[in-house]
Queue: 3 jobs
Job 1
Amino acid sequence: MPDLSPRMYQALDLAFRLHGHAARKGLRIPVMGHLLGVCALVKEDGGSEDEAIAALLHDALEDAPEQITREQIEKRFGPDVLRIIEASTDTPRDFKGGPKPPWSDRKNAYLARARSTDPSLLRVTVADKIDNLRSLLADYKRSGDKIWGQFHAGKTEQAWYYRSCLEAYTAAGFKGPLLEELRALVGELTRLTAA
């Protein structure tokens, strides 16, 4: 088994410092579990080290912008990692922390960008949506409709958003097993939430 490269170790260390004490919305699941899950999906799909690093840091600019900047990420990990993170981020470029813009504004801006993003930059954000949907569907099967209270948007909006992500990635030209897994999960979400 290959040793963890120094860059990957640095990314893991940074991800832990940024998110290591945080839990996912309304859950006791550590954010680090999500970041590692996205990283695993990326590597299992043949992703590069840059993509794996971006997977570990894909929430940094959204959730910890007061602790890390775009410039610091680029200096430590290079412009390719930064581009992948930016393609995965739904907050505005000038977001420095505090209250985020309204959910629908962020998601619509993200979707507009995703439709025209180079598909080589989308593996991490597709893996992120897969990991999020796996978690959401598992919670829904356990708890039913009460899970929607933990999100900024309800059942209808969440189903719309994930369908729209799938459409945006397809329009951008992203292809492969991750997209097909996302398609299956979106179909399951649509069936469960239509009842």
Job 2
Amino acid sequence: MRTFRFASLLLAAALWTGVPAHAQDVELAGVKYPPTLTVANTTLRLNGAGVRYKAVFKVYTAGLYLTAKAATTEQVLAASGPRRLHIVMLRKINASELGRLFTRGMEDNARPGEMSKLIPGILKMGDIFSARKQLAEGESFSVDFVPGVGATILVNGKPMAEPIKEPEFFNALMRIWLGDSPADAMLKSALLGEAPKPAPSPYH
């Protein structure tokens, strides 16, 4: 009876906090994503995580953290409270090239007339990546969005510049992975919490 009562209390606590009693780190290509983390004194939960492939090669892992579960792009973009996208490199990449790819991804998924509002943020992001030169395997960067503050780009956990205050910037950045023309359709599905799909085969 005591065991049953203890298990019931654990389950009740899990339902109250929104975190499953069995919640564990999600591990992808050796990179661990914890089920929760804190941004701006707010607990965020891992919405989904996946691997970015280019052909059959693993480029980086990405995890999306939100205050509440989102199953569609629209829900992610409309989410209230802080948000975080966290990326860990699986191979060395030229930081300036990565910045250019991000800019192109924003252009491919921008709404009509939106790009002009994004220019200040794109220029700041470009300066950050240009100064960094390269990101090595195992290094990380995050983009934190906090309402009323803006989007902060962090490299290896350290803020690299003042927040990008334009409210459109963070959502435009999210559309690189979650828009109609995502960088990787499988990664989009993973970030939205869908069941994992088989990795690309080198024989196709």
Job 3
Amino acid sequence: GDALVSDVCGALGTIDVLINNAGPFVRARTLFAEYDTATIDMLMRANALAPMHLDRLVLPHMRARQWGRIVHLGFAHAAEARGWTDRAAYAAAKCALVSLTKSLADEEARHGITVNMVCPGDIRDAYKHMRIADVRGRTDTRNPGVRPGTGEDIARVVAFLCDDDSDYVTGAVIDVHGGYDPMLR
């Protein structure tokens, strides 16, 4: 984390926006009792602790400018902190980010920093790289009557949250899921 922030600041001068998007998801459904310790540790470190550490490292740079945008990524309905059978460790990590998002939003508002969370639905495979226009007219079998979600759907919300004029929006957890509910699938 320290080296990453140092390299970015060396190349760009400062860090204004941090999008915490990286984090592994184990697609295989596994009951919590069947997880091994290494998998639990990996999911918690990558999905909760790594964003926490990066947030802490960039905050001084954002505070110095009295401006910054932090966006965390979660999963559909993460703000409700419901149980997610077969995905307990991942869900716990992302729900921790919900709390961090709201806590940092309150703590950093006086420094001109907004902190929000975007919670995508199940946007898979090629759809992650598609634009909205590419999927117009298609249907999503997981959400009857709704087109499939795309990477552009998520990017548009993230871009909005990073805009200068979005300074009134902080502590928000925004679902972008087309009605998809992962707990029902």
